[in-house]
Amino acid sequence: MDEMYLGKPNTLSNIAWHRPQSATSRVEEELIQKSTRAAAHATDPVEKLRLLCLSRGATGILVLARIFRSLDNNGSKQLKKETFINVLKKTGLELTTAESEELVNKFDTDNSGSVDLDEFIKELRPPMSESRRAVVERAFKKLDKKGDGVLSVNDIRGVYSMEAHPRYMSGEETADVVMTRFLANFEPDGDSAGTVTLEEFMNYYSGISVSIDNDCYFDLMMRQSYKL
């Protein structure tokens, strides 16, 4: 994804991101346009935020979740109300103060004045069928050779098949360009030493999933991409 993540995630003044200059495929361009239109009419704040993220491309959920996780400095998986609302403002996502407050109330499960990040990210992620979740988890487990639940970018590089990517298949881009673009989705601030958790892997593919209507096609894409 081009021009998605701007600045270090723990610097609130630099966490805004913008729509990609060019989508990675026609399918993603349709996702961006469809989500942008739907967000203008969404009334539920969770659904609206989900659509606003997807209007930034398939990695929108991944990026926002990574920003919030990076601010959980003490590992409590909780984020104070003021920080949560401030982050939403800084990202440039078009939520009103009232909608942000409603989100806080929904995910402040114990009335502590903090948002439960696990519940928030789980709810924000676009729903996937059980079969789609299963094939994504299978791909992750194949990549996770150490079995510690964390991938390196090189783990992905060693298995991911560029031949299944639409821009390679169409002849628009070379294998090297496709690989560079794909890995950039998992490299915060261009850090090739970055790691990817199952949650982040699932967040990414939940965005991809929204743009693919057919379960069989999604399954085939995953199998071809990761040689399952």
TrEMBL record:
The protein, known as: Calcyphosin-like
Organism from which the protein derives: Papilio xuthus (Asian swallowtail butterfly)
Gene name, Swiss-Prot/TrEMBL: LOC106125356
Listed GO MF terms: calcium ion binding
Domain EF-hand per the UniProt entry, residue ranges: 59-94, 95-130, 131-166
Pfam families, alphabetized: EF-hand_7
SMART domains listed in its UniProt record: EFh
PROSITE patterns: EF_HAND_1, EF_HAND_2
Key words, A-Z: Calcium, Metal-binding, Repeat
